[in-house]
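Changelog note: in this version the structure field was regenerated for every chain. One regenerated record is shown below for reference.
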Amino acid sequence: MAVSFDATAQALRRPAGAVVVDQWLWPEYTLGQRARNPKAFQRLQAGSEAGNRITMTVPPGVQTQAFTVELWIVNHVNRPVGVTVSRHAKAGSAQPAWKLIYHADKLGFFLGSKGIDEAAVAERWKGRWVHITGTFDGTTMRLYVNGQIASKVSVESKTIGDFGQHLEIVGDLANEPFMQVGDLVKNVRLLDYAANATEIAKRYGQLQDMVNQGALMPDRFHFTAGPYLNDLATDGVRLVWETDRAAASMIRYGTTLPLSDSLALGFAVPELHDQGVTSNIRKASVSGLQPGTPYFYEIEAMDSAGDTIRSGICTFATAAENPGAFCFSVLGDTEARPHINNRIAKLIWAERPDFGLHLGDITDGGDRENKYEWNYEYFTGMGQLLERMVLFPVPGNGEDDLYWYNRYHALPQNDGYYRFTHGDAEFFMLDSNKPEELRPGGVQHDWLEQALRTSSARWKFVAHHHAPYSADDDDYGDSWRGQSTLGDKRFEHVIRLYERHGVDMVFYGHLHTYQRTHPIRENRVHQQGVTYVQAGGAGGNLEDFTPTRAWYSARTYRGHHYCTVTVVGDKMSLKTYDADGHLIDYLDSTKQHQE
């Protein structure tokens, strides 16, 4: 993909020491067809690039005897990936004037055939981030990693040729299906002078601060999260969004365009967190709506300088009071791969479920210290779906401190567990990070027992993160060297509640594979038992199964996936799809009436 650099007459006579290219790369993760939201990227106010090759035109007149090239990389996958940035006389030419290479934490920096090829990344910041800077001052090439000098080499000036006007960024992403350059490289900069060590360290610190704050762009007013939908009801919905700075907001909504109703929110004081991190998360309830009705909405935000950004027109539908049929999606462990989140978000949207369940590990480790995992990963890939469909989540071990989980959600209650109804089904959402609370006498156990006992719903579904039954190969004992318990035995007591009170299906993630059990009762396959569905394949590193089939296993699949469940009266249909949209499992069930 080609990117034109907007060079002015002044840029043609660029003074020494200028920034030539400063490009932020964000894949264009938005829904397709008429649901495509062009404001999703206008609100970032930056170019959005797709694919594995990006070509930029460098303005002429830039000196070639000294330069700095910089990459800001987030690598959160477990398979080797890489990127090369290079300068060419002709676009796509095989012999670049210079190139900077990152591949699986190995580095190279070359001017013609001379350069540095023995450097490596010793440690990623926060386990994910790498700042790579190559400089050339006319005689010496230097390579810096995360603000520190890593290597240098002298180069004779006669080796320098025409640098050319083409800057190329090429991803080596074959090991990660669907990944794009913008998932790996967040920023590329080219300077027409050799930056010194002090300047490079300062730049690294600035980028670190951006990540800690969850800001996606420097010095530009933008949404860092949302807007997105929470807590769907028959008469309303709750909206959540975040901006990179304090702002006043206006919610406009209605059943037709142009939007007829509005709700104004003034400036709020930013919430101050540890180490100077602030957040500007806003929540608002839109109420008094009609049941089972489609609505449009848009959020406009204005900062203290009077700059304005808009979300674009989004949609939702309130829950129907007595739906004859409804459909919900199920996914878990979105974790580390916005490119997989993007695929699954689009596939789920294509079926237009009424709502969805998220089974936890929304992030891989988005606790108090890692706000960026919400902004840079989860909302980047899933935001396109969240702005149009409500997901009801449970916390995983990736957000077990509930710190950002509670701040980024507006749920019926913020203890990590809650219940809600939709039609003739009731959903019981649990926090399995606290297994002691799910034992008799524990707060969640007693709450759930009371809730199940008093529930009059025809269908009863439970969702939590951890797995009471799972044939994972090494989480419950190394099955390739010995025996596995085939599930987390800490949840044996809550299983008895499921069986005693007629729970139909239990959903969980944690393990990054798909497994559906036969109905289970009293630890054996039983026609009147509970079916367990492990659906943890929406983005985490894939895992594997025991070398022999578990006694309860009805279907297993190793790959990224999601589920949909359709309920029509006494009939329920579960379907599971891979990241290409292929059906990999289905189950049709008829409610058994008890005499």
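Spot check on this record: The first helix runs from residue 9 to 12. The chain has nine helices and 38 strands.
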